[in-house]
Amino acid sequence: MGSRSGTGTSVQGEPSERKAGMGKVGKRKGSARTGSGRAPAYTVGLDIGGTKILGALLDPEGEVVGTVRRTTVHGADGLVAGAAQAVRDVVASGGVELADVAGVGLGIPGIVDHRSGTVKHAVNLGVHDDELPLAELLSAELGGVPVVVENDLNVAAVGAAHVLERSADRAGGAHDHADLAFLALGTGLASGLVLEGQLRRGVSGAAGEIGHVPVDPLGPECPCGQRGCLERFASGKALEAAWPSRHGKPSPVELFEAARAGDQEAIVVKDRFASATASAVRLLVLTTDVRHVVLGGGVAQLGTELLDAVQDALREQAKVSPFLGSLRLAERVQLAPTHVPVAAVGAAVLGRRS
Amino acid sequence: MGSRSGTGTSVQGEPSERKAGMGKVGKRKGSARTGSGRAPAYTVGLDIGGTKILGALLDPEGEVVGTVRRTTVHGADGLVAGAAQAVRDVVASGGVELADVAGVGLGIPGIVDHRSGTVKHAVNLGVHDDELPLAELLSAELGGVPVVVENDLNVAAVGAAHVLERSADRAGGAHDHADLAFLALGTGLASGLVLEGQLRRGVSGAAGEIGHVPVDPLGPECPCGQRGCLERFASGKALEAAWPSRHGKPSPVELFEAARAGDQEAIVVKDRFASATASAVRLLVLTTDVRHVVLGGGVAQLGTELLDAVQDALREQAKVSPFLGSLRLAERVQLAPTHVPVAAVGAAVLGRRS
């Protein structure tokens, strides 16, 4: 809720005008696949979260050739300095230099204006009411490399699309542009959309905010002011309320363990959660009809156990409705890739397009 | 429900290979605005419904220069012959000839495969299980003019986008690609999506099928097999069930008249309907974040009285939620244009792109 924005003046071109010389770009071999006619170049993406920064370096072919993980330093100054260090570290880990980097993309929670490169209300990063010109500050810190800033869900969706497209390429199959929703089961519930290869932000940056679609008039109140929002049933917060941690592990892990051990109450809570998550998948397909729904966010670290439960719930829902059955929802769901930091990869992809 | 499809083999090129000579195209003056480099040409669109066919002729600039209305003849043969006659009539009404027509688009209910140009399960047109190769048959009937077939909601959305874009052009403002959902309050409830100027069909033709998103676990059963679908609250059928016609006028008209006259029961039913329709608008924006939601379909013939009621309901919902308030939903809603047959216009636009 309220984690996105899209208003403000356009100054996107500004950082690239101050861009450093591109002479060294592409000194490592490799051909550009973008077809844009531009010199091949590396890009860096950072996924900035409340506790950690994940970074990825993409080579000119879009392959991940370096990753990094750092602890997040809160507050504006720490954020910029930490991000700059993460960029330098991931560049070094890939054996290249900052001058080889054509662009940097950042994925960040809070209200992001991708056009002006600013962020505000990123409360768990120590960024409050004042607008922080993050793109400009980081670009200056990096000697002028262009920087773009994007909502954390959008970079995750773009990253998942990038990984899926490259897998399809490697499999040698017909290449379709990726078409997917990244369904983030984090503390809250929201999604990012890539439709036929294009990031769909929406006109006010609210595309994919399905967590606040009311699905039960008698449901619990939501902090957003409405009642019975989907997020109240399908999110990490909803799970924690229904099954608080008792043994020091994350609530989803304890719940699934208890269900596996045969605890009847846990089975009920787990099934209800799986069914609510299935409802989120159904909602995404009935509105956008995306080819894939990619499960991500903290709760998705449960892995195949979560996927199985959600697919079972989708098959259960389809049993009563031939219409739903025809949409083959269970087949559209998959887990987010875990072999790469997918949001950081997406940020790097957007850094390339800047 | 089940009114769309998108599978089947691609034979889209077939009709155009049999296309008649283009020599006469553009003999009336006018410059092409498509930027495609193709010769300027007229296109025809038909909106084929259960009782009537509406037709529109677009000139090379995209202006509506002829319209027609015919009674629908049911069954495959009657459908093709009636559509062909409607094309000839609308062409004549615009003072041009069939040879000036570069393409024909059809909007039709039922399961449409736009790639193969076939339709099935258009039960209220007398087309049942067998697949009807409508594009091919009509093209042959018209001497080879290319014909495309599209879902009726999709043509309505494209038509509304076309009209909005042209209004913006005339107003001389900054030209944005139209970004909208066409929300059809017909017998059922569904929508068509145009996102940044592009028709969004979805991978199985199900994009915009919001009528079958469940919004109340205790709601009435839906013929689709689920319970509490949005269509059970916001559609012509829902209105008729809640307020059956008593005086020979359509149920929505009688309901709104009774509410205006102060009938307390009618006011409750009307408010509930407006609130459910507002929920459909909210759902569309929270998923796709479209700039405009255009109200169409039979119920929208109520006009400004409906628009006012829906906008009031949206403002009411926003009162409890600053988050919803920030999305300015009431400002996004408008009535479908009535000065042109908007679905037929959309069909003609798609006929041009074929």
Automatic annotation (TrEMBL), chains A, B:
Transmembrane residue ranges: none
Domain of life: Bacteria
Compositionally skewed regions (Polar residues) per UniProt: 1-13
Region called Disordered, residue ranges: 1-41
SUPFAM superfamilies reported in the protein's UniProt record: Actin-like ATPase domain
Family in the record: Belongs to the ROK (NagC/XylR) family.
Protein's name according to its UniProt entry: ROK family protein
Species: Promicromonospora alba
Upper classification of the organism: Bacteria, Bacillati, Actinomycetota, Actinomycetes, Micrococcales
